[in-house]
Specification:
The protein is of the alpha/beta class. It is 47% helix and 13% strand.
């Protein structure tokens, strides 16, 4: 990638610890040339409302802006500014696009036209986990890139499902790339870096702060064609992403839930207000002509089943069955059968429902 002097300047400013978007813009607006900023900071004549430590860091990074880029490359992190061809066109359209994106992984995903955000409750139910896994896996198999926030609950579950299905995912973080949050998703962080894309607008060492997450949500929705909410309570943070999506002109999809489930209050309200009701990946794919064509292509060829999958399919031809019944019908060890069913679920061959029951989705 080619970086102009202005790109290097922006990257240095954005690399300051917890530098906010409005501050980045204020700095560059007040001092269009880095030399002018260096001079002002050096003699104390600047009019920036920054803490002393932040000013000191800003001065150091701007002076060494070429070294900043080299250091980022050492971490396999590649910043993309709004002035570069690699900057996502979808994000450039939103009201407040980030000036700089720090990226790690497959940069080609930034401008993929086939992205859908999958979000939901951090404290999801078992049913929500099953639904998110199934839909995200099916979408990934249809070559749709899953965009989410790598958070606990639905976000991380959907991204893991996309990777398990052999697909791609973009994780939009609320921290710097040197500060993995939540820490229990460190393995997912590494997997996304190798098989997808990590994105953040925060400098490398910026810690995750509560106010970062509502801000990063506009990027989650902005990168995608639409947003799917799997589970969300009445005051869920996922609804902030929905508001961003509506402001950006993105489509909103929601999975319905029981009126007795507090985690479905938000999603049911979204459907009542006009969100597209979603039962499976096909309900989303059919909303877009180019994606719907993939359904027709996939349905022309029956999925290939290995010997164990064929035994499971045969056992389910009579109808829905509980796990123990499938064990008895197939003779497959219970411990191994769980793995087989999970793979078949991700491929859309079987569907899991309440009570640990499974049904065949192909004939």
């Amino acid at each position: 990638m080619k970086y102009s002097e202005h790109d290097l300047y922006l990257i240095a400013v954005a690399s300051v610890y917890d530098m906010q978007l409005h501050t980045i813009r204020a700095v560059v607006r007040a001092f269009p040339e880095p030399e002018r900023l260096i001079e002002a900071l050096g003699d104390g004549s600047d009019d920036l409302n920054l803490a002393g430590e932040q000013k000191k860091q800003l001065l150091s990074l701007v002076r060494r802006r070429r070294e900043v880029l080299e250091r980022l490359a050492g971490y396999r992190v590649f910043p993309v500014t709004m002035g570069m061809n690699e900057y996502p066109r979808a994000l450039a359209e939103i009201p407040d696009p980030p000036e700089v994106l720090f990226c790690k992984g497959d940069l080609s995903l930034l401008n993929s036209p086939d992205c859908l955000s999958v979000i939901g409750s951090r404290s999801c139910t078992r049913a929500g986990e099953t639904i998110a896994t199934r839909i995200a896996g099916e979408l990934a198999q249809a070559e749709i890139t899953i965009v989410s926030g790598m958070a606990r609950g639905i976000d991380g579950i959907a991204q893991r499902a996309a990777l398990e299905a052999g697909g791609k995912t973009i994780a939009v973080l609320g921290s710097g790339l040197n500060k993995i949050y939540p820490p229990e998703n460190a393995d997912l962080f590494e997997r996304v870096a190798e098989n997808g894309l990590l994105v953040t607008e925060y400098g490398m060492n910026t810690e995750a702060m509560p106010y970062h997450f509502p801000q990063r949500n506009r990027i989650i929705s902005g990168l995608a064609r639409g947003v799917l909410v799997v589970e969300a309570g009445e005051k869920s943070g996922a609804l902030i992403t929905v508001r961003c999506a509506l402001e950006q002109g993105r489509d909103v999809f929601a999975v319905p839930g029981s009126v007795l489930n507090a985690n479905a209050e938000g999603t049911n309200a979204l459907i009542k207000d006009g969100a597209v009701l979603v039962r499976n990946a096909e309900d989303i794919l059919r909303e877009y002509a180019d994606w719907a064509e993939r359904i027709r292509s996939e349905k022309t060829a029956a999925p290939e089943l290995d010997e164990e999958e064929a035994r499971v399919a045969e056992a389910l031809k009579k109808g829905e069955a509980e796990f123990d019944v499938i064990v008895a019908r197939t003779g497959i060890d219970a411990g191994h059968l769980g793995v087989v069913l999970t793979k078949m679920n991700l491929r859309g061959i079987v569907m899991q429902s309440a009570g640990n029951r499974y049904e065949l989705c192909i004939r």
